[in-house]
Amino acid sequence: MADLRAGVIGLGMIGGGVAVSLARSGHPAAAVFDVRPEAADGLEGVPACVASPAEVAQACDVVLVAVVDADQARAVLTGDDGVLAGSRPGLTVVLLSTVGLAAVRELADLCAGSGVTLLDAGVTNGPEAARNGLVTMVGGPDDEVAAAVPVLEAFSRSVVHCGPLGAGMTTKLARNAITYATWAAVREATSLAAAGGVGPATLLRVLEQAEDTVAPLLHLQLKAVDYTIGEEQQAWASGLADKDLAAAQELAAELGLSLPIVDQVRPRMPDVYAGRLDGLD
């Protein structure tokens, strides 16, 4: 890591957390960028934003891209002042954004045309991003992943090399399918219990007494079932769920698989985040 200069593009919850975690590990980002020039303000150990993604590429060996979706990632990479405009052969781009596999392959091809390697790296445990708590699922060639691992380990709790290009994102989409389906199941279960006069705290108490039968993810989500968020946050969260589940459906169609649970869960996510199912609040 001492010889690698890392940069971060996108300083939201994930990217900002990654930048803070790099600093906490003693390897602060050499350059960061966000469309909000003030985004780095208040992020401990994180330098002020530079003027463009190209400047991040010029200053760094590994560029971590943590934007919202494929369109933003494409713009960050290929814009007039994008990463590829400032790149040099040998640069590595690590895509932390959750996108579909077609987008991963497209962006990797665009990077390869400039002698740049793209690795796909889905991340999870977002609320812990600023405390070196991310689990990073990376896809790409063995040697390229090995070269980037020191940077990944500097901000992650765990790094898992899942396989070739696309394997990291595939793992993230599969993990997300479990997460969203579990959220929907928790909401349905608590709605059923509430309709019968049993509150979430009672249901949780029963599950805690039989904890060996409860998956940790289900347990965590049931603990959070009373947590309410505002309408703006609901729209944001359900939008992310829709994007991620759509990507899972797209991959399944490409592979000739059916995902009947995902098909049912995807249109339900706005109600899941609003805390209502089947007319029950």
Describe the structure.
The protein is built from eleven helices and seven strands. The protein is of the alpha/beta class and about 280 residues long. The protein folds into two domains: about 5-165, Rossmann fold; about 170-275, N-(1-d-carboxylethyl)-l-norvaline Dehydrogenase, domain 2 (Orthogonal Bundle). Strands 2-1-3-4-5-6-7 form a seven-stranded mixed β-sheet, with helices on both faces. Helix 4 links the parallel strand 4 and strand 5. Helix 3 packs parallel to helix 4.
What's this, in brief?
The chain has 281 residues and is of the alpha/beta class.
Number of helical elements:
11
Q: What is the helix fraction of residues, given as a range?
A: 40-55%
Q: Evaluate the radius of gyration.
A: 20 Å
- Annotated CATH homologous superfamily of the largest domain: NAD(P)-binding Rossmann-like Domain
User: In CATH's first tier, which class of the largest domain applies?
Assistant: Alpha Beta
Strand content: 5-15%
Largest beta sheet, briefly?
7 strands, mixed
The low-confidence parts are none
Distance between the termini: 50 Å
The largest beta-sheet arranges its strands as 2-1-3-4-5-6-7
Run of helices and strands:
EHEHEHEHEEHEHHHHHH
Total separate domains? 2
Corresponding CATH architecture of the largest domain: 3-Layer(aba) Sandwich
Averaging pLDDT over every residue, what do you get? 90
User: What would the CATH topology of the largest domain be?
Assistant: Rossmann fold
Find the count of extended strands (DSSP E, 2+ residues): 7
- The dominant shape is globular
The assigned structural class equals alpha/beta
